[in-house]
Amino acid sequence: MAATQTAIIPSGTKGAKQLRACLLCSLIQHPLDFRKFGCPNCEELMQMKNSGDRVTACTTTYFDGVIAVIDPEKSWVAKWQRTSKYVRGMYAIRVRGRIPEDVEHELDNRGIRYRPRDQLDQD
Ligand SMILES: [Zn+2]
Fold first, then answer.
1. Residues with CB under 5 A from ligand 1 (ion)
2. pLDDT tens for residues 46-93?
3. Where is it localised (predicted)?
């Protein structure tokens, strides 16, 4: 099974409580999919595949404002992604929480300043 440029879109957002958002790119997936496939955008940095602990550390259930597809070119993620592309999928507009320190250091090594997604507003 080759990786595609489309994330697995969770069916039905009603049970959204079970879904988790990637702390780095805000992609929303079912935790089992994060564990099975990692984050299609950030797996290189997050390394969640086959690690429930990493999924817990790198994703959160505290997110809101779900959008279906975003324009890949406008994302800040494109700055550190070699492909310069977000996969299509469901994304959270706001995500609470911080990426693990090792991931932050890795971004730092690449000369990229991490912007926590939960500081977009101050409530
Ligand atoms: Zn991600």
1. 22, 24-25, 27, 39, 41-42
2. 999 999 999 999 999 999 888 776 555 555 555 555 544 678 788 888
3. Chromosome, Centromere; Nucleus
Which one-letter amino acid corresponds to residue 99?
A: I
Q: Give the model's pLDDT for residue 7.
A: 74
Q: In the chain, what are the domain boundaries?
A: 16-110
d(CA 61, CA 72): 23
Structure tokens at 14: 């009603």
CATH class of 16-110: alpha beta
DSSP secondary structure code for residue 6 in this structure: B
Tokens 């080759």 correspond to 2
Stated pTM of the model: 0.73
Q: How far, in Å, from the CA of 28 to the mean position of ligand 1?
A: 8
Residue 53: CA count within 13 A, CB half-sphere: 1
